[in-house]
Amino acid sequence: WYQRRVRGSDHPTEHDDWDFGSGAGFYLDATNSPWRENYRMYSYVVSELIPLVTETFNVSPEKRALSGHSMGGHGSLVITLKNPDMFRCSTAFAPISNPINGPWGVKAFSNYLGEDRASWADWDSTELVKNF
Q: What's the CA gap between 86 and 117, in Å, rounded?
């Protein structure tokens, strides 16, 4: 269900590369077609998953934490930096760092978000932390 709903567009190139598509969603909300319909991981985590876990497992909103590894570590940082009052702490183990300045991130961000590199900073934890 999750794979199909959050990703799962079944676009012909979705599963071709380890560093793009189903292999690398970057915890962002894609704005470019054909990715924008299903690649909305940020909204899914913030608007659906966190409320569901909080309610289902009686998690105290004042004590919530978010953590992740690699791509998930980057996602943890992005989500927390965009929602600083949502979590008490956020951790990342070996997160992807500054993807807008690396080939892997440039490939993904240009496909998911388009060529306007200024908009990419909204999905890069290294850039977001500069706002604090």
A: 27
Contact 65, 83 (CB under 8 A): no
Task: For residue 28, give both structure tokens.
Answer: 């962002």
The pair of three-digit structure tokens given for residue 130, joined into one six-digit string: 């500069």
The angle subtended at Cα 51 by Cα 30 and Cα 57, nearest 5°, is 135
The Cα–Cα gap between 35 and 83 comes to 24
Token pair for 1: 């269900």
Task: Pick out the chain residues at pLDDT < 70.
Answer: 1-9
Q: Which of 58, 95, 55 is nearest to 76 (CA)?
A: 95
pTM recorded for the entire structure: 0.88
Q: Please give the Cα distance from 11 to 112 (Å, whole number).
A: 13
